[in-house]
Amino acid sequence: MTELNRLTIAEARDALRKGDVTSVELTEACLAAVEGAGALNAFVHHTPDLARAQAQAADARIAKGDAPAMCGIPLGIKDLFCTKGVPSQAASRILQGFLPEYESTVSQNLFDAGAVMLGKLNMDEFAMGSSNETSCYGNAVNPWRRGNDATELTPGGSSGGSASAVAADLCLGATGTDTGGSIRQPAAFTGITGIKPTYGRCSRWGIVAFASSLDQAGPMTKTVRDSAIMLGAMCGFDPKDSTSADMPVPDFEALLTGDIRGKVIGIPREYRMEGMPAEIEKLWSDGADMLRHAGAEIRDISLPHTKYALPAYYVIAPAEASSNLARYDGVRYGHRAKLAQGDGITEMYEKTRAEGFGHEVQRRVMVGTYVLSAGFYDAYYNRARRVRALIKRDFDEAFAAGVDAILTPATPSAAFGLGEMTDADPVQMYLNDVFTVTVNLAGLPGVAVPAGLNAQGLPLGLQLIGRPWEEGDLLNTAYALEEAAGFVAKPAKWW
Amino acid sequence: MSIDLETAAKVAKLARIAVKDEALPALADEFNTILGFIEQLNEVDVSGVEPMTSVTPMRLRRREDVVNDGNQQTAVLSNAPDAREGFFAVPKVVE
């Protein structure tokens, strides 16, 4: 048998059920892998004692014979999820020392299914970033390198630690969250699969809020099948989230037939951006050919408001963030600044937030404050919400015309070097999300699937966008793409 | 629309984030870059389009208006930077 930490969730589940392996053995293998991967800085809080206790309980449950698929599977949990009694600080200094008194619904669902938590994963501060460089824990590092070049690359962001950990086989799967591309972009940068489900599919309760109308949790895994299994365990109706969908959760894995004959796959012409690298262009057309050979009909479509998605996002997301992050006031939890003689409550707020928030978070909170301020609310915020309605309408019309899924590149490039974007203006970094952000604005499910390597040996991903609530059908198309692409490359271990 | 130093200072104040005077010019520059990018939205014809309030056609659910939680003082205060006698403690607010 291969090293246990290299197994997929599906392989581990089958081995656990057959009694070929125990969860304790799987968990020990992952804990050892985590221990040896400090250079990746993926895990930022370690919970080995909890993991061992959960693994023993999982083994007992499996022995009884009625364990769910995720039972005994070792996972990493993004630091954005509140986990009871375990540090949960959204990679921010302002939540230093915060120990939640409650468990997020998604992590609780996973634990109820018997999953094992190895620890908390690195990310961009408050999920604001595309390179994991805004984290208070320092950069997470991509296990992939440009051939023999030792330049450290970003695993993407904001779920950079999740992506790095899964790609480096430190865990069998990880939770991510996605507000503008934060599951799909890092998945593409690290050669793994990640799905952002339909808005409302996963409960947001207990996940530190960034932009509430856009945030969704989802799985980041080694294969499409694993995403189907793990998503099923994460999602479901939750009365504690007022936007949670009261809908049945299908057996996503059972829908993976690989048969996509007759499906209509849209290729949106507006995603063919000026200056798009040839390798991305080729990956995209290769992907379309693969789906055509699998029996799908490839159709050119138009999503005319695509160009305005990023600017609309950079009004709406900061606006919601400025409102959500108002709660960090130094009163109820987290950091409080040391005050000088005579400082009052306003100085306490201002100093606490200046010390506690990093630069990018401060910038977005202030941009959000500005676009919501008197006199600008209509010009910026309401206009952006109107444009958002038009972006959603574009997708609605494409689906109404018979399109089943839409194929696009996941990212405009392969992973870039850590620090390479430091001197760029903020908008340059925002462009990373150009292909993914439309999906959040329209509330749709989107999945990133690894589909090839670039000339430097770095993974590249394709994105499939599905109809609302049809994650099962979307994952089946992703499964067909995965089969056809046959992506099996792994990063060579250097860490 | 261009953000001057005074506006940048006002926004920082509204956001309750202390920004040193010497940091204001760089901050104003960044705001202007981002707002310049956002200006593209003015090209879109949005006449007759309602601002989106919910991405999925749904009404927010309301729970029953009943007490369903309580007696959690210790848990509520457990993460407070400063808690005294069962309360959150803050600097003096009223003279």
Textual characterization of the structure:
The complex is a heterodimer of chains A (495) and B (95). By secondary structure, chain A is α/β, with parallel strands linked by helices. Chain A is 37% helix and 13% strand. Chain A has helices at residues 9-18, 23-35, 48-64, 105-112, 160-167, 184-190, 224-234, 278-293, 309-324, 345-356, 359-372, 377-400, 426-430, 437-441, 471-485, and strands spanning 43-46, 74-78, 116-121, 173-178, 193-196, 216-221, 264-268, 297-301, 405-409, 446-453, 459-466. In chain A, strands 1-3-2-4-6-5-10-11-9-7-8 form an 11-stranded mixed beta sheet, with helices on both faces. In chain A, strand 7, helix 8 (278-293) and strand 8 (297-301) form a beta-alpha-beta unit. In chain A, helix 2 (23-35) packs antiparallel against helix 3 (48-64), helix 7 runs antiparallel to helix 15 and helix 9 crosses helix 11 (359-372). The mean pLDDT of chain A is 97. Chain B is mainly alpha-helical and 95 residues long. Chain B is 32% helix and 4% strand. Chain B has 3 helices and 2 strands, in the order H-H-H-E-E. Chain B has helices spanning 5-14, 24-38, 73-77, and strands at 83-84, 87-88. Chain B has a two-stranded antiparallel ribbon with strand order 1-2. In chain B, helix 1 (5-14) packs across helix 2 (24-38). Chain B is flat. The model of chain B has no long low-confidence stretch (mean pLDDT 93).
